Amino acid sequence: MMMKVALVHTTSQIGHHGCTLVNRRIEALSAAAGLQITRRFPLQFDETAEDWGRYDAILLNGEGSLHHDRRAAKRIAALGGVFERAGRPAYLINTIYEENGPEVAEGVARYRRVYTRDGASQAALARAGIAAIVVPDLSLTWEPGTALAPKGGRLVVGDSVHKHVSAALWGFARAKHAPFFSMMTTPPVIPDFADRNRKHRLRHAWRRATGLVSPKGATRARFWNEFKSFEDYTAFLAKSAALVVTGRFHQLCIGFDMEIPVVAVSSNTRKLESLCADAGIAGRVVPTAAEAAALVEREGLSGLAYTPDEIANLRRFRAGARDRAAAMFRTIAGGG
After folding, report:
1. 36 and 173 housed in the same domain
2. Tell me: the pLDDT tens digits for 168-224?
3. Mean model confidence pLDDT for the chain
4. Is 325 helix (H, G, I), strand (E, B) or coil?
5. 161 and 137 both lie in a single domain
6. C-alpha distances in angstroms, 335 versus 33, 87, 97, 132, 301?
């Protein structure tokens, strides 16, 4: 008999190809371990209206939210107490942890188990007195297959969570006559909470509409140079990209999956640097878009291709990620 599970923080609601992949992997890996996800929640919802006794366990997908005592970090911490008081085993999975204070740490400690995406987050949790197990980001368990074997020969440039970095990357793409794309797309309708997802769809529609009358630039490009589906996005990468320059964490993950070289610009946490350190990939994360552009100018596409050692490290790392993810879901299914 399959365990009935609630999934909290279904981030695919925001229309982000990386989050779409993560949530697909959560669904697939859960099912393989005998977990049936019967209800999906966003991060912000009325937890008092739910009968938590209907579920055998609760999964909370942390992703990149637990940092710097931000609102989302405090919400995840508070939910740890909610689930504990409800007497339901709750598991914080697929999370980072960086620069949080005692309030957040106290809530995170209430989860039955904590699974963090990288070694640096594990160390930060240890300093807060919380034991955590490293399971790399669940997007790294994806197998693209031979149909998505890279065959492109171009530089392509992606966006960033930071507007100023996106603007600089757009300028670099324009100077190099390279395609510029966004990892964001039209947010999907999520059946489990369609009303709560409406704001994401309306906001995206408004940004696209205002982009039509905006000057050409990163803001306009981010909402028009998008791919409607994850399949369109990855097909483009396979067909076009010999190198991706981006500020997005999940573009780096998908580059690892597809074995497409990536030069990444630092984000709002150390997640890019931590991922590369764990994977044994050095020198591919730089502080600024200007430094990324200089690196590409200096090394060229061929100079930034993965070396045989890097390919070996990536394959070893991703095989370990798949094994660790499978073990994590088996532990949850076993009530551990």
Report:
1. no
2. 999 999 999 999 998 887 766 666 665 556 666 666 555 665 665 565 666 655 555
3. 91
4. helix
5. no
6. 12, 13, 24, 16, 48
- 323 and 289 in a single domain? The answer is no
**161 and 127 assigned to the same domain:** no
Q: Select from 214, 217, 254, 242 the least CA-distant residue to 303.
A: 242
Strand ranges across the sheet with 285-286:
180-181, 154-160, 241-247, 262-265, 285-286
pTM here?
0.91
Q: Model confidence at 13, in pLDDT bands (50, 70, 90)? A: low
| Judgement on whether residues 188 and 228 belong to the same structural domain of the protein | yes
Question: In this structure, is the dihedral angle defined by the CA atoms of residues 274, 277, 279 and 285, taken in order, positive or negative?
Answer: positive
What is the H or E stretch that residue 160 is in?
strand 154-160
Q: Could you list the residue range(s) of the whole structural domain that residue 284 is in? A: 146-317
- 185 and 228 co-located in one domain: yes
| CATH number where 293 lies | 3.40.50
Per-residue pLDDT tens over the stretch 92-101: 999 999 999 9
Q: How far is CA 234 from CA 5, 42, 64, 227, 248, in A?
A: 30, 26, 22, 9, 15
Number of domains in the chain: 2
